[in-house]
Amino acid sequence: MEDNKELKVIDLGLIIKRIWARKKLFLIVIPIVFLLSCAYILCIPRYYTSSLSLAPEMAGSGSGMGGTLGSLASSFGIDLGNMETTDAINPLLYPDLMDDNGFVMGLSKVRVKSMDGAIDCSYYEYIDKKQEMPWWGETVAKIKGWLAPKAEPRKGADGESNPYFLTKKQDDVISSIKNNIAIAVDKKTGVISISVEAQDPLICKSVADSVKERLQIFITNYRTNKARIDAEYYKKLADNAKKDYEKSRRKYGSYADANTDVVLESLKAEQNDLENDMQLKYNTYTSLTTQYQAAAAKIQERTPAFTLIKGASVPVKPAGPKRMVFVLGMCFLAIIVLSLYSLKDILIKD
Description:
Elements: H1 12-21, H2 23-43, E1 48-56, H3 67-75, H4 80-83, H5 101-108, E2 111-113, E3 120-122, H6 123-129, H7 135-147, H8 168-180, E4 181-185, E5 192-198, H9 201-258, H10 265-302, E6 306-310, H11 323-342, H12 344-349
Antiparallel strand pairs: 1-5, 1-6, 2-3, 4-5
Helix pairs in contact: 2-11, 9-10
């Protein structure tokens, strides 16, 4: 049995005729869509974007896998240097810092200043009170402010706001900061890219630099944390050993001064015991001092070096919104909708 296939032919002449018959509708709707699109997009504040690239020294990079194997892995986008790092926090996890309220709350305290000097406040206050909004956004914000229950910021033990116990208002501001800042790590090269969005070009650049500095501090503190703990531990032991040695030395000196001309072997033996005890404590003190110095040197060894590949600059042109693209897109969408409306009888019949 053969299937009967009915071949349908598109009549372009009929389509053009139907659309042309509705030309008055097009002439009315398209200008209205154009004007409404212009009115809408002009109310949306423009924003700027500033970005930078940073290359941190990888832990254990001195003993990385080189040669043919490293080159072969690199061709598949795999960095063996990153894989053999001794860090518990893989560099690919650095972007997740923007999900941590504690890290973001630290950024909110950064002082920012606008290009014209009219704004000079903390980044938190800038996001909370200094942001431009469309008129309907301001109306909605006022209504939410009236309806929202009043809540005092929750303080931690040090008197600062608790980043992990926020009010609704604080959470909204922190969420806005998270949306404005993006951190990305290239899997192949390990280069960290930081991008910041703001309504003022100078603030945009300032926040990008602040994110870079705080990220460097975080990485440095993490990499040197174990070495700093070891240095503090050995310093404490060395200080205690020094006190014990000085106490033993004073005791030996007093005993030796008081028994200078003695001939009794028992007194000489006791003096020898005190001298040996003093020498033992001195050896312990010098040994711990050497270990402390080695631990202190380890801090410098573990401190990573950072190479700024691309610095953040003050943007000249806004990154968005793309006003012309939006208006043309809305007009094109209106033409598509009107065309489908004009051809609805043909489409339904088919």
